[in-house]
Request: fold
Amino acid sequence: MPTSSAEATRRPPRMEIAGLAAGYGGDPIVAEIDITVGAGEVVAVIGANGAGKSTLLKAITGALVPISGRVTVEGREITRLPAHRLARLGIGYVPQTRDVFDTMTVVENLEMGGYLLSAPERAARVTEVMNIFPQLNQMRGRRALKLSGGERKMVALARVLMLRPKVLVLDEPTAGLSPELSRAVLRQQVRTLADRGTAILLVEQKAFEALEVSDWAYVLVGGRVVIDGPGSVVARRPDIREVFLGGTAQS
Ligand SMILES: Nc1ncnc2c1ncn2[C@@H]1O[C@H](COP(=O)(O)OP(=O)(O)O)[C@@H](O)[C@H]1O
Ligand SMILES: [Mg+2]
Reply:
Protein backbone atom coordinates (compact mmCIF):
# COMPACT_ATOMS: atom_id res chain seq x y z
CA MET A 1 0.00 0.00 0.00
CA PRO A 2 1.47 3.40 -0.93
CA THR A 3 2.26 5.36 2.22
CA SER A 4 0.81 8.56 0.78
CA SER A 5 -2.77 7.23 0.42
CA ALA A 6 -2.60 5.56 3.84
CA GLU A 7 -1.31 8.81 5.40
CA ALA A 8 -4.24 10.63 3.83
CA THR A 9 -6.71 8.62 5.92
CA ARG A 10 -5.21 9.87 9.20
CA ARG A 11 -6.85 12.49 11.40
CA PRO A 12 -5.11 15.81 12.06
CA PRO A 13 -2.70 15.31 14.97
CA ARG A 14 -3.78 16.23 18.49
CA MET A 15 -0.53 14.99 20.02
CA GLU A 16 2.80 15.12 18.18
CA ILE A 17 6.05 13.55 19.31
CA ALA A 18 9.08 14.67 17.32
CA GLY A 19 12.67 13.46 17.57
CA LEU A 20 12.21 12.14 21.10
CA ALA A 21 15.13 10.40 22.79
CA ALA A 22 15.25 9.18 26.39
CA GLY A 23 17.13 6.85 28.70
CA TYR A 24 18.44 6.41 32.20
CA GLY A 25 21.81 8.14 32.07
CA GLY A 26 23.75 5.89 29.68
CA ASP A 27 23.06 5.45 25.97
CA PRO A 28 19.52 6.40 24.98
CA ILE A 29 17.02 3.54 25.38
CA VAL A 30 14.66 5.08 22.80
CA ALA A 31 15.63 7.58 20.09
CA GLU A 32 14.46 9.32 16.91
CA ILE A 33 10.83 8.77 17.83
CA ASP A 34 8.25 10.56 15.64
CA ILE A 35 4.63 9.69 16.47
CA THR A 36 1.34 11.51 15.91
CA VAL A 37 -2.04 10.75 17.47
CA GLY A 38 -5.25 12.28 16.13
CA ALA A 39 -8.56 12.87 17.92
CA GLY A 40 -10.59 9.67 17.74
CA GLU A 41 -7.59 7.55 16.85
CA VAL A 42 -6.13 4.57 18.66
CA VAL A 43 -2.42 4.64 17.85
CA ALA A 44 -0.49 1.59 18.99
CA VAL A 45 3.19 1.26 19.78
CA ILE A 46 3.92 -2.44 19.75
CA GLY A 47 7.16 -4.13 20.66
CA ALA A 48 8.67 -7.02 22.56
CA ASN A 49 9.47 -6.95 26.25
CA GLY A 50 12.41 -4.57 26.72
CA ALA A 51 11.90 -2.70 23.41
CA GLY A 52 11.58 0.59 25.30
CA LYS A 53 7.80 1.07 25.29
CA SER A 54 7.46 2.11 28.93
CA THR A 55 10.55 4.33 28.68
CA LEU A 56 8.94 6.10 25.73
CA LEU A 57 5.70 6.72 27.63
CA LYS A 58 7.56 7.94 30.71
CA ALA A 59 9.41 10.47 28.54
CA ILE A 60 6.14 11.63 26.98
CA THR A 61 4.34 12.02 30.31
CA GLY A 62 7.12 13.74 32.22
CA ALA A 63 7.97 10.79 34.48
CA LEU A 64 11.39 10.76 32.79
CA VAL A 65 13.22 13.80 31.41
CA PRO A 66 13.83 13.34 27.65
CA ILE A 67 17.37 13.74 26.28
CA SER A 68 16.00 15.52 23.21
CA GLY A 69 12.84 16.03 21.21
CA ARG A 70 9.46 17.67 21.65
CA VAL A 71 5.97 16.63 22.64
CA THR A 72 3.09 18.94 21.73
CA VAL A 73 -0.65 18.68 22.35
CA GLU A 74 -2.85 20.86 20.13
CA GLY A 75 0.29 22.80 19.22
CA ARG A 76 1.25 23.51 22.80
CA GLU A 77 4.58 22.14 23.99
CA ILE A 78 4.25 19.82 26.99
CA THR A 79 7.79 18.38 27.01
CA ARG A 80 9.23 18.20 30.53
CA LEU A 81 6.06 19.39 32.28
CA PRO A 82 5.36 17.61 35.59
CA ALA A 83 2.48 15.13 35.86
CA HIS A 84 0.01 17.48 37.59
CA ARG A 85 0.43 20.10 34.84
CA LEU A 86 -0.21 17.45 32.21
CA ALA A 87 -3.38 16.37 34.01
CA ARG A 88 -4.64 19.96 33.92
CA LEU A 89 -3.84 20.17 30.21
CA GLY A 90 -5.94 17.10 29.47
CA ILE A 91 -3.33 14.37 29.24
CA GLY A 92 -4.25 11.19 31.12
CA TYR A 93 -1.59 8.54 31.75
CA VAL A 94 -2.23 5.02 33.00
CA PRO A 95 1.15 3.49 33.91
CA GLN A 96 1.90 -0.21 33.53
CA THR A 97 1.89 -0.84 37.28
CA ARG A 98 0.63 1.04 40.36
CA ASP A 99 -2.35 2.26 38.39
CA VAL A 100 -4.94 2.16 41.21
CA PHE A 101 -4.96 2.68 44.97
CA ASP A 102 -5.26 -0.86 46.35
CA THR A 103 -6.79 -0.12 49.73
CA MET A 104 -9.39 2.32 48.38
CA THR A 105 -12.77 1.39 46.99
CA VAL A 106 -13.68 1.84 43.35
CA VAL A 107 -15.57 5.07 44.09
CA GLU A 108 -12.70 6.41 46.19
CA ASN A 109 -10.29 5.66 43.34
CA LEU A 110 -12.47 7.66 40.96
CA GLU A 111 -12.71 10.52 43.45
CA MET A 112 -8.91 10.58 43.71
CA GLY A 113 -8.75 10.76 39.92
CA GLY A 114 -10.97 13.84 40.08
CA TYR A 115 -8.75 15.65 42.60
CA LEU A 116 -8.64 18.82 40.49
CA LEU A 117 -12.45 19.16 40.47
CA SER A 118 -14.68 20.84 43.04
CA ALA A 119 -16.67 18.44 45.26
CA PRO A 120 -19.97 18.83 43.35
CA GLU A 121 -18.20 18.49 39.97
CA ARG A 122 -16.37 15.44 41.23
CA ALA A 123 -19.58 13.72 42.35
CA ALA A 124 -21.25 14.48 39.01
CA ARG A 125 -18.27 13.19 37.09
CA VAL A 126 -18.21 9.91 39.09
CA THR A 127 -21.77 9.32 37.89
CA GLU A 128 -20.81 10.12 34.28
CA VAL A 129 -17.80 7.81 34.34
CA MET A 130 -19.96 5.05 35.84
CA ASN A 131 -22.27 5.52 32.88
CA ILE A 132 -19.36 5.10 30.45
CA PHE A 133 -18.47 1.75 32.10
CA PRO A 134 -21.70 0.57 33.77
CA GLN A 135 -19.99 -2.52 35.27
CA LEU A 136 -18.23 -0.15 37.68
CA ASN A 137 -21.54 0.44 39.46
CA GLN A 138 -21.74 -3.15 40.71
CA MET A 139 -18.26 -2.93 42.22
CA ARG A 140 -18.36 0.64 43.45
CA GLY A 141 -17.89 -0.20 47.14
CA ARG A 142 -15.22 -2.88 46.67
CA ARG A 143 -11.59 -2.28 47.49
CA ALA A 144 -9.30 -2.37 44.46
CA LEU A 145 -7.22 -5.22 45.88
CA LYS A 146 -10.35 -7.44 45.81
CA LEU A 147 -10.88 -6.92 42.08
CA SER A 148 -9.89 -9.22 39.22
CA GLY A 149 -7.19 -8.09 36.79
CA GLY A 150 -9.74 -6.99 34.20
CA GLU A 151 -11.87 -5.09 36.73
CA ARG A 152 -8.80 -3.39 38.09
CA LYS A 153 -7.77 -2.19 34.63
CA MET A 154 -11.25 -0.76 34.15
CA VAL A 155 -10.91 1.20 37.39
CA ALA A 156 -7.46 2.46 36.37
CA LEU A 157 -8.86 3.76 33.11
CA ALA A 158 -11.98 5.18 34.74
CA ARG A 159 -9.86 7.00 37.33
CA VAL A 160 -7.97 8.83 34.58
CA LEU A 161 -11.23 9.63 32.76
CA MET A 162 -12.37 11.70 35.75
CA LEU A 163 -10.53 14.74 34.35
CA ARG A 164 -11.97 14.29 30.82
CA PRO A 165 -8.61 13.79 29.08
CA LYS A 166 -8.21 14.87 25.46
CA VAL A 167 -5.27 12.49 25.17
CA LEU A 168 -4.96 9.12 26.88
CA VAL A 169 -1.60 7.39 27.22
CA LEU A 170 -1.96 3.73 28.18
CA ASP A 171 0.90 1.41 29.12
CA GLU A 172 -0.09 -2.21 28.44
CA PRO A 173 -3.69 -2.12 29.67
CA THR A 174 -3.92 -5.87 28.94
CA ALA A 175 -0.85 -6.93 30.95
CA GLY A 176 -1.66 -10.08 32.93
CA LEU A 177 -5.04 -10.60 31.21
CA SER A 178 -6.03 -13.63 29.11
CA PRO A 179 -6.16 -13.12 25.31
CA GLU A 180 -9.97 -13.12 25.49
CA LEU A 181 -10.13 -10.53 28.27
CA SER A 182 -7.43 -8.49 26.52
CA ARG A 183 -9.59 -8.28 23.41
CA ALA A 184 -12.56 -7.22 25.53
CA VAL A 185 -10.57 -4.42 27.23
CA LEU A 186 -9.22 -3.18 23.91
CA ARG A 187 -12.55 -3.28 22.07
CA GLN A 188 -15.01 -2.28 24.78
CA GLN A 189 -12.88 0.23 26.66
CA VAL A 190 -10.00 1.55 24.54
CA ARG A 191 -11.75 1.59 21.15
CA THR A 192 -14.97 2.93 22.66
CA LEU A 193 -13.19 5.89 24.26
CA ALA A 194 -11.46 6.75 20.98
CA ASP A 195 -14.78 6.57 19.15
CA ARG A 196 -16.04 9.21 21.58
CA GLY A 197 -13.23 11.50 20.39
CA THR A 198 -10.30 10.87 22.71
CA ALA A 199 -6.81 10.57 21.17
CA ILE A 200 -5.29 7.35 22.48
CA LEU A 201 -1.64 6.30 22.49
CA LEU A 202 -1.62 2.62 23.39
CA VAL A 203 1.52 0.65 24.18
CA GLU A 204 1.15 -3.12 23.92
CA GLN A 205 3.19 -6.29 23.89
CA LYS A 206 0.09 -8.19 22.68
CA ALA A 207 0.66 -7.01 19.14
CA PHE A 208 -2.15 -8.66 17.20
CA GLU A 209 -4.83 -7.83 19.74
CA ALA A 210 -3.66 -4.19 19.73
CA LEU A 211 -3.47 -3.99 15.94
CA GLU A 212 -7.12 -5.10 15.68
CA VAL A 213 -8.31 -1.90 17.36
CA SER A 214 -5.63 0.50 16.06
CA ASP A 215 -5.95 3.07 13.34
CA TRP A 216 -2.19 3.36 13.09
CA ALA A 217 0.67 1.38 14.57
CA TYR A 218 4.36 1.88 15.17
CA VAL A 219 6.63 -1.12 15.72
CA LEU A 220 9.40 -0.49 18.24
CA VAL A 221 12.54 -2.64 18.10
CA GLY A 222 15.56 -1.80 20.22
CA GLY A 223 14.14 1.63 21.02
CA ARG A 224 13.66 2.67 17.38
CA VAL A 225 10.54 2.70 15.20
CA VAL A 226 11.22 0.20 12.41
CA ILE A 227 7.77 -0.02 10.79
CA ASP A 228 4.65 2.10 10.84
CA GLY A 229 1.35 1.93 9.04
CA PRO A 230 -2.37 1.30 9.45
CA GLY A 231 -3.01 -1.39 12.09
CA SER A 232 -4.62 -3.77 9.59
CA VAL A 233 -1.70 -3.39 7.16
CA VAL A 234 0.97 -3.91 9.84
CA ALA A 235 -0.90 -7.02 11.09
CA ARG A 236 -0.77 -8.58 7.61
CA ARG A 237 2.95 -8.01 7.05
CA PRO A 238 4.62 -11.38 6.56
CA ASP A 239 7.74 -10.24 8.44
CA ILE A 240 5.95 -8.99 11.56
CA ARG A 241 6.67 -12.07 13.71
CA GLU A 242 10.31 -12.02 12.61
CA VAL A 243 10.58 -8.33 13.57
CA PHE A 244 9.22 -9.22 16.99
CA LEU A 245 11.57 -12.14 17.46
CA GLY A 246 14.42 -9.83 16.48
CA GLY A 247 13.29 -7.44 19.19
CA THR A 248 13.17 -10.19 21.79
CA ALA A 249 16.64 -11.42 20.85
CA GLN A 250 18.09 -7.96 21.36
CA SER A 251 16.58 -7.34 24.76
N1 LIG B 1 14.64 2.57 35.76
C1 LIG B 1 15.48 2.05 34.85
N2 LIG B 1 16.83 2.24 34.95
C2 LIG B 1 17.67 1.72 34.02
N3 LIG B 1 17.28 1.02 32.93
C3 LIG B 1 15.97 0.80 32.79
C4 LIG B 1 15.00 1.30 33.72
N4 LIG B 1 13.76 0.92 33.30
C5 LIG B 1 13.95 0.23 32.16
N5 LIG B 1 15.26 0.15 31.85
C6 LIG B 1 15.83 -0.52 30.67
O1 LIG B 1 15.31 0.08 29.49
C7 LIG B 1 15.05 -0.92 28.51
C8 LIG B 1 13.62 -0.78 28.03
O2 LIG B 1 12.75 -1.04 29.12
P1 LIG B 1 11.22 -0.67 29.06
O3 LIG B 1 11.08 0.70 28.55
O4 LIG B 1 10.63 -1.01 30.37
O5 LIG B 1 10.72 -1.71 27.93
P2 LIG B 1 9.25 -2.26 27.62
O6 LIG B 1 8.26 -1.41 28.31
O7 LIG B 1 9.15 -2.21 26.12
O8 LIG B 1 9.24 -3.69 28.11
C9 LIG B 1 15.38 -2.27 29.13
O9 LIG B 1 16.66 -2.65 28.70
C10 LIG B 1 15.38 -1.98 30.62
O10 LIG B 1 16.28 -2.80 31.28
MG1 LIG C 1 6.76 -1.78 29.66
Summary: Strands lie at 13-22, 30-38, 42-46, 68-73, 76-77, 91-94, 167-171, 199-204, 216-221, 224-229.
